[in-house]
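[Meeting: bench + compute handoff]

Bench side (C.D.) handed over the final construct sequence. Compute side (W.E.) agreed to return the predicted structure before the next meeting so the bench team could plan truncations. Sequence as handed over:
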Amino acid sequence: MPQLDISTFTPQLVWLAIWFVVLYLLMAKLALPRIARAIEARRRRREDDLARAAQLKAEADEASTAYQKTLAEARAQAQATIKETSDRLAADAAKQQRALAATLAEQIEAAERRIAATKEQALAEVRSIAVDVGRSVVEKLTGTVPDAAKMAAAVDSSLSGRAH
């Protein structure tokens, strides 16, 4: 094997050193700066992405806070509207109930007056019917027509005795 020949070691070592220096210079001047730029670009992009993500998270937090605040305000406004509407409806219902109670009281009072008038009229008719029946009974029993004034006085005294 020619690589193991001791007489060719020195030229091989010289060529090894030359190629090592050439490859080192190529790597140091061409390849490594490109790799360093690529790594730096990736690092910057990653940092930019992280910064943008942090900014978006902060904006999302702000939006969430604003949403929660708006939602709380909307709920409070809805509760106030519900309370206001409930109070207004309760006041309207109370007003209608008072009006209905007043109307019913007037109708009851009018009905009581009509009942009292009808009762008076019925009692007056009962008196005249009682006088007529009493006259008919006395006439049939005695055969004579009784005095209308005496018959009316007898019926009045009988009715007044029952009234107590």
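W.E. noted at the follow-up: Helices lie at 9-142, 148-163. C.D. will use this when planning the next construct.
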